[in-house]
Each structure stands twice: as C-alpha cells, then as structure tokens.
Amino acid sequence: MNDTPAWLSPAEQHAWRAFVRLQQKFWPMLERDLQAHKLSGADFEILVALTDTPDGRRQFQDLAGTIEWEQSRLSHQIARMIKRGLVAREECAEDGRRAFVAITPAGRERIEAAAPHHVATVRRLVIDALKPDELATFARLSNRILEQLDDVPPRPSSRSSRR
C-alpha cells in the first residue's frame, strides 16, 4: 500500500491557495460589517434562520440542523443571544423535552438594520465581481463541492471540536 499523498499540481495548488486566501480575506470583512450592528457572524446566521420562518421561531433541533451546528455550540450561542435580548427560549406545550428558539423584537430590529449593509457588502465583494455566466458557474461549482461535503460521514462529537 502506498502512503504517499497525491500532491497537488502547480495549477491545483494555485487554485486551492486562491480559495483559502479568498476565505481569509472575505469572512473578516463580513464580520466587521456585522459588528458595526453589534452582531457576530454566529448571531446573524441564527437570526437569518429564524427570520426564514413565518413566525420567527424554530425548534432547537431543527435550528441546529438548518445551520449545521452541534447542539452544544448552538446552546452556548443561544444563551449569549438570550442575555443580549436577541432571542428567547420558548417551551414546547406538546412535548416538555423540546424547546423553541424565537426571535425577539430587538433581534428582528437588529437584523433588519444589519441586513441591507450585509447584502451590499456581499454584492460589492462577490456578486458585482462576476459576470452573470461566471456567477452561474460559481454557484454550480459551490453546489458540487457542497454535495461532496454532504457525503462525508460526520465525525464523532468531542468537546473540543469547533466548526
């Protein structure tokens, strides 16, 4: 059995490093925009998932699945957001073991203030940089990689795992 890795060709290495650098530059820019509205990227992700429902609430497990977070990470983040008044925990009347996370009026106000700036940043940094056919290719390639990632079996949970 050959344990030698299949090293990246120069073209593959260039593509991979460009992708890594893109992420390293892009995410901090988005985070800075959100921080101007007193939101973290994690806050924004949760608030978006909540505002995607008509009543602004989701069962805890559904929310964890939607944003693909481990339950413990989500619990800690929700606790921080409750303290800041962005979300509330609601008990499930039908099943006392289940709970809902609901956006509060303050949380809705915060995301409504941040969203236009967030969209403008995404448009300026990504959408406007691509021609329509390039955008379609970008979406197709991103979805192909996501499908590959979705096929990877989950690793066993550990307390130190971070996404």
UniProtKB/TrEMBL annotation:
InterPro entries: HTH_MarR-typ, MarR/SlyA-like, WH-like_DNA-bd_sf, WH_DNA-bd_sf. Residues 12-147 form the HTH marR-type domain. GO terms for molecular function: DNA-binding transcription factor activity. It comes from the Bacteria. One of its GO terms (biological process) is response to stress. It holds the Pfam family HTH_27. This is Winged helix-turn-helix transcriptional regulator. It comes from Lentzea alba.
